[in-house]
Specification:
The chain is an alpha/beta fold. 27% of the residues lie in helices and 23% in strands. Strands 3, 13, 14, 15, 16, 17, 18, 19 and 20 form a 9-stranded mixed β-sheet that branches. It is globular.
Length: 422
Protein backbone atom coordinates (compact mmCIF):
# COMPACT_ATOMS: atom_id res chain seq x y z
CA UNK A 1 0.00 0.00 0.00
CA UNK A 2 1.52 3.31 -1.10
CA UNK A 3 -1.31 5.84 -0.79
CA UNK A 4 -0.25 9.41 -1.46
CA UNK A 5 -1.60 12.40 0.44
CA UNK A 6 -3.82 14.94 -1.25
CA UNK A 7 -4.90 17.77 1.03
CA UNK A 8 -6.73 20.72 -0.57
CA UNK A 9 -6.11 24.31 0.49
CA UNK A 10 -9.87 24.81 0.73
CA UNK A 11 -12.02 22.41 2.74
CA UNK A 12 -15.72 22.27 3.51
CA UNK A 13 -16.24 18.95 5.30
CA UNK A 14 -14.51 16.30 7.40
CA UNK A 15 -15.68 12.74 6.81
CA UNK A 16 -18.85 14.07 5.23
CA UNK A 17 -19.77 16.53 8.01
CA UNK A 18 -19.53 20.27 7.37
CA UNK A 19 -16.62 21.84 9.22
CA UNK A 20 -18.80 24.87 9.95
CA UNK A 21 -21.34 22.62 11.68
CA UNK A 22 -18.60 20.97 13.74
CA UNK A 23 -17.28 24.37 14.85
CA UNK A 24 -20.76 25.61 15.65
CA UNK A 25 -21.57 22.57 17.80
CA UNK A 26 -18.25 21.95 19.53
CA UNK A 27 -16.43 25.30 19.33
CA UNK A 28 -12.80 25.94 18.44
CA UNK A 29 -10.11 24.82 18.72
CA UNK A 30 -11.32 21.22 18.45
CA UNK A 31 -9.65 18.02 17.33
CA UNK A 32 -11.79 15.94 14.96
CA UNK A 33 -10.93 12.29 14.20
CA UNK A 34 -12.22 10.28 11.26
CA UNK A 35 -12.88 6.74 12.54
CA UNK A 36 -12.95 5.32 9.01
CA UNK A 37 -9.36 6.40 8.38
CA UNK A 38 -8.20 4.76 11.62
CA UNK A 39 -9.91 1.52 10.63
CA UNK A 40 -8.39 1.76 7.16
CA UNK A 41 -4.84 2.13 8.47
CA UNK A 42 -5.37 -0.72 10.92
CA UNK A 43 -6.53 -2.93 8.04
CA UNK A 44 -3.32 -2.08 6.13
CA UNK A 45 -1.35 -4.09 8.71
CA UNK A 46 -3.54 -7.19 8.77
CA UNK A 47 -0.71 -9.40 7.46
CA UNK A 48 1.14 -9.10 10.78
CA UNK A 49 0.15 -11.60 13.46
CA UNK A 50 -0.56 -8.80 15.92
CA UNK A 51 -0.90 -5.03 15.68
CA UNK A 52 -0.11 -3.31 18.97
CA UNK A 53 -1.18 0.33 19.10
CA UNK A 54 1.31 2.74 20.68
CA UNK A 55 -1.30 4.77 22.47
CA UNK A 56 1.05 7.65 23.29
CA UNK A 57 0.17 8.93 19.79
CA UNK A 58 -3.49 9.54 20.71
CA UNK A 59 -4.78 8.06 23.94
CA UNK A 60 -8.40 9.20 24.08
CA UNK A 61 -10.53 6.38 25.49
CA UNK A 62 -12.81 6.39 22.45
CA UNK A 63 -9.84 5.92 20.10
CA UNK A 64 -8.51 3.08 22.29
CA UNK A 65 -11.94 1.45 22.28
CA UNK A 66 -12.20 1.79 18.49
CA UNK A 67 -8.87 0.06 17.98
CA UNK A 68 -9.58 -2.62 20.59
CA UNK A 69 -12.80 -3.49 18.79
CA UNK A 70 -10.80 -3.64 15.57
CA UNK A 71 -8.51 -6.28 17.05
CA UNK A 72 -5.50 -4.16 18.00
CA UNK A 73 -3.52 -4.82 21.15
CA UNK A 74 -2.09 -1.85 23.07
CA UNK A 75 1.30 -0.57 24.21
CA UNK A 76 1.59 1.64 27.29
CA UNK A 77 4.46 3.73 28.60
CA UNK A 78 3.18 4.94 31.98
CA UNK A 79 0.98 3.86 34.86
CA UNK A 80 -1.84 6.10 33.70
CA UNK A 81 -1.60 4.77 30.15
CA UNK A 82 -2.07 1.30 31.67
CA UNK A 83 -5.12 2.66 33.48
CA UNK A 84 -6.41 4.15 30.23
CA UNK A 85 -6.09 0.80 28.48
CA UNK A 86 -7.98 -0.93 31.30
CA UNK A 87 -10.67 1.79 31.23
CA UNK A 88 -11.06 1.27 27.47
CA UNK A 89 -11.84 -2.40 28.00
CA UNK A 90 -8.49 -4.13 27.54
CA UNK A 91 -8.04 -7.07 29.95
CA UNK A 92 -4.82 -6.99 31.99
CA UNK A 93 -3.49 -10.36 30.85
CA UNK A 94 -3.85 -12.94 28.12
CA UNK A 95 -1.99 -14.55 25.21
CA UNK A 96 -0.67 -12.52 23.51
CA UNK A 97 -0.62 -9.87 26.25
CA UNK A 98 -3.42 -7.39 25.53
CA UNK A 99 -1.48 -4.67 27.37
CA UNK A 100 2.30 -4.31 27.41
CA UNK A 101 4.19 -1.77 29.52
CA UNK A 102 7.22 -0.57 27.55
CA UNK A 103 9.67 1.86 29.13
CA UNK A 104 13.26 2.46 30.17
CA UNK A 105 12.37 2.84 33.85
CA UNK A 106 9.76 1.83 36.36
CA UNK A 107 8.60 4.68 38.55
CA UNK A 108 7.17 3.49 41.85
CA UNK A 109 3.53 3.59 40.74
CA UNK A 110 4.06 1.89 37.37
CA UNK A 111 6.07 -0.93 38.99
CA UNK A 112 3.39 -1.51 41.59
CA UNK A 113 0.60 -1.48 39.01
CA UNK A 114 2.37 -3.79 36.56
CA UNK A 115 3.12 -6.31 39.30
CA UNK A 116 -0.32 -6.19 40.94
CA UNK A 117 -2.37 -6.34 37.72
CA UNK A 118 -0.15 -8.84 35.90
CA UNK A 119 0.67 -6.44 33.05
CA UNK A 120 3.36 -7.77 30.73
CA UNK A 121 6.63 -5.83 31.07
CA UNK A 122 8.85 -4.95 28.11
CA UNK A 123 12.08 -3.90 29.80
CA UNK A 124 14.28 -1.23 28.26
CA UNK A 125 17.10 -1.17 30.83
CA UNK A 126 19.00 -3.66 33.00
CA UNK A 127 17.70 -1.93 36.14
CA UNK A 128 14.11 -2.61 35.08
CA UNK A 129 14.89 -6.34 34.99
CA UNK A 130 16.30 -6.25 38.53
CA UNK A 131 13.47 -4.15 39.95
CA UNK A 132 10.79 -6.30 38.34
CA UNK A 133 12.50 -9.60 39.09
CA UNK A 134 12.78 -8.88 42.81
CA UNK A 135 9.02 -8.27 43.08
CA UNK A 136 7.67 -10.62 40.41
CA UNK A 137 10.05 -13.55 39.87
CA UNK A 138 9.27 -16.44 37.53
CA UNK A 139 7.16 -14.39 35.12
CA UNK A 140 7.58 -13.76 31.40
CA UNK A 141 9.11 -10.54 30.07
CA UNK A 142 10.23 -9.11 26.76
CA UNK A 143 13.27 -6.91 26.18
CA UNK A 144 13.51 -3.76 24.12
CA UNK A 145 16.89 -3.72 22.38
CA UNK A 146 18.76 -0.68 21.10
CA UNK A 147 20.46 -2.11 17.98
CA UNK A 148 23.19 0.55 17.97
CA UNK A 149 21.65 2.73 15.25
CA UNK A 150 18.56 4.85 14.80
CA UNK A 151 16.70 7.01 12.32
CA UNK A 152 13.66 9.31 12.26
CA UNK A 153 12.10 12.37 10.66
CA UNK A 154 13.86 14.53 13.29
CA UNK A 155 16.83 14.11 15.59
CA UNK A 156 14.33 14.37 18.43
CA UNK A 157 12.41 11.31 17.20
CA UNK A 158 15.48 9.11 16.74
CA UNK A 159 15.25 6.33 19.34
CA UNK A 160 18.32 4.23 18.52
CA UNK A 161 22.08 4.54 18.67
CA UNK A 162 24.46 5.59 21.41
CA UNK A 163 22.91 9.06 21.79
CA UNK A 164 19.48 7.60 22.54
CA UNK A 165 18.33 6.76 26.05
CA UNK A 166 15.99 4.05 24.74
CA UNK A 167 16.39 0.30 24.96
CA UNK A 168 19.01 -2.13 26.21
CA UNK A 169 22.31 -1.65 24.40
CA UNK A 170 22.71 -4.58 22.02
CA UNK A 171 26.09 -5.59 23.46
CA UNK A 172 24.50 -5.94 26.93
CA UNK A 173 21.91 -8.50 25.84
CA UNK A 174 23.87 -11.43 27.26
CA UNK A 175 24.20 -9.74 30.65
CA UNK A 176 20.48 -8.93 30.69
CA UNK A 177 19.55 -12.52 29.86
CA UNK A 178 21.68 -13.62 32.82
CA UNK A 179 20.01 -11.05 35.08
CA UNK A 180 16.58 -12.31 34.07
CA UNK A 181 17.62 -15.90 34.73
CA UNK A 182 18.67 -15.05 38.28
CA UNK A 183 15.06 -14.14 39.03
CA UNK A 184 13.53 -16.98 37.06
CA UNK A 185 12.25 -14.47 34.49
CA UNK A 186 11.66 -16.01 31.07
CA UNK A 187 12.58 -13.75 28.16
CA UNK A 188 9.97 -14.72 25.58
CA UNK A 189 10.19 -11.85 23.13
CA UNK A 190 12.32 -9.05 21.73
CA UNK A 191 11.34 -5.57 20.56
CA UNK A 192 13.21 -2.98 18.47
CA UNK A 193 12.22 0.57 17.54
CA UNK A 194 14.73 2.98 15.95
CA UNK A 195 12.63 6.12 15.54
CA UNK A 196 9.47 7.77 14.28
CA UNK A 197 9.31 8.37 10.55
CA UNK A 198 12.26 6.16 9.63
CA UNK A 199 12.45 5.25 5.94
CA UNK A 200 12.13 1.73 4.58
CA UNK A 201 15.88 1.35 4.03
CA UNK A 202 16.61 2.01 7.70
CA UNK A 203 13.66 -0.06 8.85
CA UNK A 204 15.07 -2.96 6.82
CA UNK A 205 18.26 -2.84 8.88
CA UNK A 206 16.25 -3.46 12.02
CA UNK A 207 15.06 -6.88 10.89
CA UNK A 208 18.66 -8.01 10.46
CA UNK A 209 19.58 -6.71 13.91
CA UNK A 210 16.55 -8.47 15.35
CA UNK A 211 17.62 -11.81 13.84
CA UNK A 212 21.04 -11.51 15.42
CA UNK A 213 19.63 -10.63 18.84
CA UNK A 214 16.97 -13.36 18.76
CA UNK A 215 19.55 -16.02 17.91
CA UNK A 216 21.66 -14.84 20.84
CA UNK A 217 18.63 -14.91 23.15
CA UNK A 218 17.92 -18.49 22.16
CA UNK A 219 14.97 -20.87 21.83
CA UNK A 220 12.85 -19.17 24.52
CA UNK A 221 12.00 -16.40 22.05
CA UNK A 222 8.45 -16.87 20.83
CA UNK A 223 7.69 -13.38 19.50
CA UNK A 224 9.46 -10.48 17.85
CA UNK A 225 8.19 -6.92 17.55
CA UNK A 226 9.14 -4.72 14.63
CA UNK A 227 8.34 -1.66 16.71
CA UNK A 228 6.70 1.36 15.12
CA UNK A 229 7.89 4.47 13.33
CA UNK A 230 6.20 3.73 10.01
CA UNK A 231 6.40 6.82 7.76
CA UNK A 232 3.22 8.87 7.43
CA UNK A 233 2.59 11.42 4.66
CA UNK A 234 2.16 15.05 5.71
CA UNK A 235 2.82 16.85 2.43
CA UNK A 236 0.92 16.54 -0.83
CA UNK A 237 2.44 13.80 -2.94
CA UNK A 238 4.15 12.03 -0.04
CA UNK A 239 3.23 8.37 0.18
CA UNK A 240 2.66 5.90 2.96
CA UNK A 241 5.28 3.24 3.49
CA UNK A 242 4.93 0.19 1.25
CA UNK A 243 3.35 -2.01 3.90
CA UNK A 244 3.54 -5.14 1.76
CA UNK A 245 7.29 -4.70 1.25
CA UNK A 246 7.76 -3.90 4.94
CA UNK A 247 5.89 -7.01 6.01
CA UNK A 248 7.85 -9.14 3.53
CA UNK A 249 11.14 -8.01 5.10
CA UNK A 250 10.03 -8.99 8.57
CA UNK A 251 8.26 -12.15 7.52
CA UNK A 252 11.43 -13.41 5.85
CA UNK A 253 13.41 -12.68 9.03
CA UNK A 254 10.75 -14.39 11.11
CA UNK A 255 10.83 -17.51 8.92
CA UNK A 256 14.60 -17.74 9.18
CA UNK A 257 14.30 -17.51 12.96
CA UNK A 258 11.64 -20.21 12.99
CA UNK A 259 13.97 -22.50 11.08
CA UNK A 260 16.84 -21.75 13.46
CA UNK A 261 14.80 -22.01 16.66
CA UNK A 262 12.68 -24.95 15.44
CA UNK A 263 9.37 -23.44 16.55
CA UNK A 264 6.83 -20.83 15.53
CA UNK A 265 7.63 -17.16 16.16
CA UNK A 266 4.86 -14.56 16.16
CA UNK A 267 5.43 -11.25 14.40
CA UNK A 268 4.11 -8.06 15.95
CA UNK A 269 4.16 -4.45 14.75
CA UNK A 270 3.66 -1.42 17.02
CA UNK A 271 2.35 1.59 15.10
CA UNK A 272 1.12 4.77 16.71
CA UNK A 273 1.32 7.69 14.33
CA UNK A 274 0.64 5.47 11.31
CA UNK A 275 -2.79 4.51 12.66
CA UNK A 276 -4.08 7.92 13.76
CA UNK A 277 -2.14 10.83 12.20
CA UNK A 278 -4.14 11.16 8.99
CA UNK A 279 -7.43 10.76 10.83
CA UNK A 280 -7.03 13.96 12.82
CA UNK A 281 -7.95 17.57 12.03
CA UNK A 282 -7.49 20.59 14.28
CA UNK A 283 -10.35 22.99 13.60
CA UNK A 284 -9.49 26.61 14.45
CA UNK A 285 -10.97 30.06 13.91
CA UNK A 286 -9.10 32.89 12.22
CA UNK A 287 -9.11 35.74 14.76
CA UNK A 288 -6.74 38.31 13.26
CA UNK A 289 -4.95 39.13 10.02
CA UNK A 290 -1.78 41.21 10.31
CA UNK A 291 0.69 42.68 7.86
CA UNK A 292 4.17 42.76 9.44
CA UNK A 293 6.42 44.40 6.85
CA UNK A 294 6.48 41.98 3.95
CA UNK A 295 4.80 39.15 5.85
CA UNK A 296 1.10 38.48 6.13
CA UNK A 297 -0.01 36.63 9.27
CA UNK A 298 -3.15 34.56 9.82
CA UNK A 299 -3.59 34.28 13.59
CA UNK A 300 -5.89 31.53 14.82
CA UNK A 301 -7.26 30.54 18.22
CA UNK A 302 -5.17 27.35 18.48
CA UNK A 303 -1.55 27.46 19.56
CA UNK A 304 1.34 25.15 20.34
CA UNK A 305 -0.50 24.37 23.56
CA UNK A 306 -2.80 22.38 21.25
CA UNK A 307 -0.38 21.16 18.56
CA UNK A 308 3.27 21.20 19.59
CA UNK A 309 4.82 19.28 16.67
CA UNK A 310 5.77 22.40 14.65
CA UNK A 311 7.59 24.08 17.54
CA UNK A 312 9.17 20.81 18.71
CA UNK A 313 10.30 19.37 15.38
CA UNK A 314 9.61 21.99 12.73
CA UNK A 315 6.98 19.51 11.61
CA UNK A 316 4.93 20.31 8.51
CA UNK A 317 1.13 20.00 8.66
CA UNK A 318 -1.19 20.60 5.71
CA UNK A 319 -3.70 23.42 6.13
CA UNK A 320 -6.92 24.54 4.55
CA UNK A 321 -9.28 27.48 4.74
CA UNK A 322 -12.99 26.76 5.19
CA UNK A 323 -14.65 29.43 3.01
CA UNK A 324 -17.78 30.78 4.67
CA UNK A 325 -19.32 31.45 1.25
CA UNK A 326 -18.39 28.02 -0.11
CA UNK A 327 -16.08 29.51 -2.75
CA UNK A 328 -13.14 27.11 -3.04
CA UNK A 329 -11.57 28.98 -5.97
CA UNK A 330 -10.31 32.09 -4.17
CA UNK A 331 -6.92 33.58 -5.04
CA UNK A 332 -4.10 32.43 -2.79
CA UNK A 333 -1.40 34.37 -0.92
CA UNK A 334 1.75 33.49 0.98
CA UNK A 335 0.85 33.66 4.66
CA UNK A 336 2.37 32.74 8.01
CA UNK A 337 0.00 30.92 10.35
CA UNK A 338 0.39 31.51 14.07
CA UNK A 339 -1.49 31.12 17.30
CA UNK A 340 -2.52 33.30 20.26
CA UNK A 341 0.23 32.46 22.75
CA UNK A 342 2.63 34.99 24.22
CA UNK A 343 5.58 33.19 22.65
CA UNK A 344 7.44 33.95 19.42
CA UNK A 345 7.63 30.25 18.63
CA UNK A 346 3.85 29.97 18.42
CA UNK A 347 3.97 29.54 14.64
CA UNK A 348 2.47 26.57 12.81
CA UNK A 349 4.35 27.28 9.58
CA UNK A 350 7.93 26.88 10.76
CA UNK A 351 10.81 24.59 9.95
CA UNK A 352 13.17 22.61 12.16
CA UNK A 353 15.39 25.07 14.00
CA UNK A 354 12.56 27.59 14.33
CA UNK A 355 12.84 29.48 11.04
CA UNK A 356 9.49 30.95 10.02
CA UNK A 357 8.07 29.85 6.68
CA UNK A 358 5.12 31.01 4.61
CA UNK A 359 2.34 28.84 3.27
CA UNK A 360 0.23 29.33 0.15
CA UNK A 361 -3.38 29.59 1.32
CA UNK A 362 -6.62 31.11 0.01
CA UNK A 363 -7.49 34.64 1.01
CA UNK A 364 -9.63 34.58 4.12
CA UNK A 365 -11.42 36.86 6.55
CA UNK A 366 -11.51 37.08 10.31
CA UNK A 367 -14.15 34.68 11.62
CA UNK A 368 -13.56 32.04 8.95
CA UNK A 369 -12.19 28.65 9.88
CA UNK A 370 -8.76 27.18 9.25
CA UNK A 371 -8.15 23.43 9.49
CA UNK A 372 -4.77 21.89 10.28
CA UNK A 373 -4.57 18.38 8.88
CA UNK A 374 -2.76 15.17 9.84
CA UNK A 375 -3.13 16.23 13.48
CA UNK A 376 -4.33 12.94 14.94
CA UNK A 377 -0.95 11.87 16.32
CA UNK A 378 0.95 13.78 19.00
CA UNK A 379 -1.64 16.54 18.99
CA UNK A 380 -4.04 16.49 21.90
CA UNK A 381 -1.80 14.13 23.88
CA UNK A 382 0.95 16.78 23.91
CA UNK A 383 -1.47 19.53 24.85
CA UNK A 384 -0.72 21.85 27.75
CA UNK A 385 -2.26 24.68 29.74
CA UNK A 386 0.40 27.20 28.77
CA UNK A 387 -1.00 30.75 29.09
CA UNK A 388 -3.79 29.07 31.13
CA UNK A 389 -5.39 27.87 27.93
CA UNK A 390 -7.89 25.02 28.32
CA UNK A 391 -7.34 21.64 26.70
CA UNK A 392 -9.21 21.48 23.40
CA UNK A 393 -12.33 19.42 22.80
CA UNK A 394 -12.08 16.14 20.87
CA UNK A 395 -14.69 14.75 18.48
CA UNK A 396 -14.93 11.38 16.74
CA UNK A 397 -16.77 11.11 13.43
CA UNK A 398 -17.99 7.55 12.88
CA UNK A 399 -20.70 6.22 10.58
CA UNK A 400 -21.84 9.70 9.63
CA UNK A 401 -22.19 11.01 13.19
CA UNK A 402 -20.00 13.37 15.17
CA UNK A 403 -19.72 12.64 18.87
CA UNK A 404 -17.77 14.59 21.47
CA UNK A 405 -15.27 12.27 23.12
CA UNK A 406 -13.66 14.90 25.33
CA UNK A 407 -15.28 18.14 26.38
CA UNK A 408 -13.31 21.37 26.40
CA UNK A 409 -11.58 21.86 29.74
CA UNK A 410 -13.29 24.32 32.06
CA UNK A 411 -11.58 26.87 34.28
CA UNK A 412 -12.62 24.94 37.39
CA UNK A 413 -11.00 21.81 35.96
CA UNK A 414 -7.87 23.73 35.05
CA UNK A 415 -7.29 24.96 38.63
CA UNK A 416 -8.77 21.93 40.43
CA UNK A 417 -5.42 20.77 41.80
CA UNK A 418 -4.27 24.17 42.98
CA UNK A 419 -4.74 25.87 46.35
CA UNK A 420 -3.83 29.07 48.12
CA UNK A 421 -2.28 28.33 51.52
CA UNK A 422 -3.70 30.03 54.61
Amino acid sequence: MTDSLTFPTSLVDIAGIAVADLAREFGTPTFVYDAAMIRRRLADLAAFDHVRYAQKACSNLAVLDLLRRGGALVDTVSAFEVRRALAAGYPPDGTPPPIVYTADIFDAESLRLVVERGIHANCGSPDMIDQYGRLAPNREITLRINPGFGHGHSRKTNTGGEHSKHGIWHAQLGDCLARASRYGLRVTGLHMHIGSGADLAHLALVSGAMEKAALEAGPGIGSISAGGGLPTPYRDGETCVDVDAYFALWDAARKRLEDALAHKVSLEVEPGRYLVAESGYLVTELRAIKQQGGNRFYLVDAGFNNLARPILYGAYHPMAIVPADGDCSRPEDDVIVGGPLCESGDIFTQEEGGSVAARRLPRAAVGELLVIGCAGAYGSVMGSNYNSKPMAAEVLVADGRARQIRRRQTFDELVAGESIPD
